[in-house]
Amino acid sequence: MLGQLEHELELHVPASEAWDLFGTLRLGQFVAKELPQLFDNVELIEGDGGVGTVLKLTFASGVAGPSGYKEKFTKVDNEKRIKETEVVEGGYLELGFTLFRVRLEVIEKGEESSIIKSSIEYEVKEEHASNASFVSVQSLATIAELAKNFLNKNKPSKEAT
Predict the structure, then answer these.
(1) Burial of 133 (0-12, 13-18, 19+ CB in 10 A)
(2) In the predicted model, is pLDDT for residue 134 greater than 70?
(3) Signed CA dihedral, 62, 68, 74, 77: sign only
(4) In whole angstroms, what is the distance from residue 152 CA to residue 108 CA?
(5) Which among 34, 13, 9 is positioned nearest to 152, based on CA atoms?
(6) 72, 75, 80, 83: which is the annotated catalytic residue?
(7) Do the bridges between strand 82-90 and strand 54-59 make them parallel or antiparallel, or are there none, so unpaired?
(8) What does residue 8 show for φ and ψ, rounded to 5 degrees?
(9) How many of the other CB atoms lie within 10 Å of CB of 25?
(10) Are the C-beta atoms of residues 57 and 68 closer than 8 Å to each other?
(11) Alpha-carbon distance 71 to 139, whole Å?
(12) Is there a catalytic annotation at residue 72?
């Protein structure tokens, strides 16, 4: 069984500024700091933020489901501003999924505006098809909203440039 979910949010910062957060390892640090109710830790296992980078995400105690998972960066395109990660250990794989991919794309909308498009693509074995109901873009929507507020607060003022 295949599935895909998407979420989009307009950011009031240039695409280059949004990509400086979403396209780098800063996003993992940001998530760990801003969402302690969801994640206890986001740990760099290997890599420098490029393709092949592996992160270990540990959920906070009390979060339903697996205690965490490892994800691998499978695509990082700085020109098109696209990053894809796949769960390679734990998490959804323990629930019968054979693929769980998150794609983040920063789309330039204007000089001072961009869109963060988040999507989840998954494949789950037929005998575990009911577990597809666990897939949600809510955490990606929450991360996008927190990032929007963070980027707006930390936007360089035009007078300073």
Answers:
(1) exposed
(2) yes
(3) positive
(4) 16
(5) 13
(6) 83
(7) unpaired
(8) -130, 145
(9) 16
(10) yes
(11) 16
(12) no
pTM of the model as a whole:
0.91
Q: Is the pLDDT of residue 158 over 60?
A: no
pLDDT tens by residue, 19-67: 999 999 999 989 989 888 888 999 999 999 999 999 999 988 877 777 8
What is the 3 state secondary structure string of the chain?
CEEEEEEEEEECCCHHHHHHHHCCCHHHHHHHHHCCCCEEEEEEEECCCCCCCEEEEEECCCCCCCCEEEEEEEEEECCCCEEEEEEEEEHHHHHCEEEEEEEEEEEEEECCEEEEEEEEEEEECHHHHHHHHHCCCHHHHHHHHHHHHHHHHCCCCHHHC
> With 50 as the cut, is the pLDDT of residue 5 above it?
yes
* Domain spans of the chain, in order of start: 2-156
Superfamily of domain 2-156: START domain (3.30.530.20)
Mean local confidence (pLDDT), 83-106 = 97
Q: Which residues contact 86 (CB under 8 A, 6 or more apart)?
A: 71, 72, 74, 99, 100, 101, 102
Beta-carbon contacts of 148 under 8 Å, excluding residues fewer than 6 positions away, are 9, 11, 12, 116
d(CA 124, CA 93): 9
